[in-house]
Amino acid sequence: MTGLRQEFPQISVKTLCGLFGMSPQAYYKKKKTLLSRNQIKAAILSAVLYYRSQAPSIGGLKLHYELCSIYGGEVIGGRDAFLNLLRSEHLMLPPKKPRHTTDSNHLYKKYPNLIKGMTARYPNHIWVSDITYIWIQDGVCYLHLITDMYSHAVLGWVLAPGLQAAYTVQALEQAILKGGGGNLCGTIHHSDRGSQYACDDYIGLLTQHHIRISMTEDSKPTDNAVAERMNGILKTEWIYGRSLFKDEQDARQQIAQMIDFYNNGRPHMSIGMKKPMDVYCGEQPGKCLWKKAGSI
């Protein structure tokens, strides 16, 4: 109808509305609504472009979360509609290539799985080790972690620019120091079959402290579920809800605070809402409150 109005300006809006079976009031209301939607769309796209200028790799879900927290969900709209808008404007990021943090295709000795079906019975009974990647604005860095299975406390961690075994060894050295050092013959160290955990330096340090060595079976990453759970908590409760870290130093500072809160301030349902470091230091864990049996 707008096109007809422009082509025949002498025809009144009232006449045109009558031809299309609508009232002038409805026409102006719809025109105002369309204008408002266009303005909102333009504002959303402007905000998206601003965030992308600050963090080029920030994803659609993070953008939706961030914009809703600033402008409100009633303005930004639902997640799917928001992602469809990004898609229609060619603002969706290309799929990220999968990153493999460990390589089990090596000539080092691979050890059997010693913890299959086993439950940790005390602090320092079973340690689980893992590496996960952390995105920063200009790339990616890697978080090397060691977690106590009984208490879920993080005992050692290193955020590093690469996957070299030297960083994994540093995380292990932290865990050994926290575990009391010396003879840790009651401890089992469990990991995947990555070269970082099978190399001479890492195995030598475990052997030096009489720590038994356990590794996942082929193609069964779920054997390392406690470490995976820790990674998931760290990312979903903290990292995914914020913009990308500016750089490695910023990531290290923020992750230090996250892990400190995870260890000392966050109640865990798996240990009866106790804090991991309290349980690690001797407090009895409470009953697991997870509904699914075997959940961690």
UniProtKB/TrEMBL annotation:
Domain Integrase catalytic: from-to ranges: 119-284
InterPro entries documented for this protein: Integrase_cat-core, RNaseH-like_sf, RNaseH_sf, Transpos_IS3, Transposase_IS3/IS150/IS904
Gene Ontology biological process terms, A to Z: DNA integration
Superkingdom as given in the UniProt entry: Bacteria
GO molecular function: nucleic acid binding
Protein name: Transposase InsO and inactivated derivatives
The organism of origin for this protein: Bacteroides stercorirosoris
Lineage: Bacteria, Pseudomonadati, Bacteroidota, Bacteroidia, Bacteroidales
